[in-house]
Amino acid sequence: MKKVILKIDNVSKYFKVGNFRSSALLHASDEVSFEIRESEIVALVGESGSGKSTIARILAGIYQPSAGTITFEGQRIQEIEKRYIRGKMPLVFQDPFSSINPVFKVGHGILRTLKLHRKDLSKAERFQLAVDFLEKVGLTPGAEVLQRYPHELSGGQRQRLGFAQALASNPSLILADEPVSMLDVSIRIGLLNLMRDLRTNEKVSILYITHDLASARYIADRMIVLYAGKIVEEGLSEAVVANPRHPYTQLLMSTAPDPRLPYVELENTADLGEPPKVINPQPGCRFAPRCSMAIERCHTSDPELLNIESDRRVSCFVVQA
After folding, report:
1. In angstroms, how far is CA 2 from the centroid of its own chain?
2. Using the 8-state DSSP alphabet, how is residue 66 labeled?
């Protein structure tokens, strides 16, 4: 077993809603727990509003968790210097057009990152390293690309630049928040292959956040499915996609079938509604209102996330029965 580099234990994030007199809390994530190991790609999957990006922003230090603990490289994250965490766990944003400052040349962000996190290097060494990182992500020739402005790059090239800047901080784990969702379908596969190459060649782990099970299956070792702030299923990617057990995972699969897999009957699995905004939640499975398999207990009690087989956890009374 590879070493665990990140452990999230019962992490929750609540946002106050309404005016100052209101006691209402929006539960963006609730008691989320999982681990990421060295050189591993883990996909966090779910619809918009499921809490995926909230988890990424907690890890990046943008939000503070309302409850729970996060351990990174054996230390509680609150006890580690913020600059070190941001270097070891950089975030690659969803929008390649707004996440890079258009005023400066491409080299500005990478060289600034190297100056912050690699003070032991000379100016010439930092320049050469910046060239190397650009070429590792497929932006060649690196020395020429450093002198360009962001508007001279395509969307796919800008997203590659985001990964180059992440590499410049010498990361252990890259948080990739929907990095291909705004790109043309024809160039998404190149970015997915890039992430696989970084895992293999740079020995970096990746938390890949997406709503797309097909891309998650393509690059991720393990898959974690979120619904309304809670984990509903977790397991090896191939196993989850080939045999989805939770009704919500089945619903996601029915919207993006894989023609290479045997036909799976998924009709009438669930309602096609949207994830609820969970404000002051009452007991009961959050997916029950959309689930055709729900039993009475689903509306009154919260199912635990339990092992149903080797390397598979599911939060569902019907599946666990």
Report:
1. 20
2. S
Residue 30: what are its φ and ψ, rounded to 5°?
A: -135, 115
User: How far apart are the C-alpha atoms of 159 and 98, rounded to whole Å?
Assistant: 11
CATH of 4-90+171-320, one of 3.40.50.261, 3.30.360.10, 3.50.50.100, 3.40.50.300: 3.40.50.300
What is the full per-residue pLDDT of the chain (321 aa) written as tens digits?
Answer: 789 999 999 999 999 988 888 889 999 999 999 999 999 999 999 988 899 999 999 998 889 999 999 999 999 998 888 888 989 999 998 887 777 888 899 999 999 999 988 888 899 999 999 999 999 999 999 999 999 999 999 989 999 999 999 999 999 999 999 999 888 888 899 999 999 999 999 999 999 999 888 899 999 999 999 999 999 999 999 999 999 999 999 988 887 655 555 545 544 455 556 667 789 888 999 999 989 899 999 999 999 999 998 889 999 999 987
Q: Is 27 exposed, middle or buried (0-12, 13-18, 19+ CB in 10 A)?
A: buried
43: helix, strand or coil: strand
Residue holding tokens 């727990």? Answer: 33
- Ordered by start, the domain boundaries in the chain are 4-90+171-320
| 38 HSE (CA, 13 A, CB side) | 8
Least Cα distance to 252 among 51, 92, 50 occurs for 50
Whether the predicted model's global pTM rises above the 0.85 cut: yes
Q: What is the b/e burial string over 62-84, where b = at least 16 CB atoms within 10 angstroms of the residue's CB?
A: ebebbebebbbbeeebeebeeee
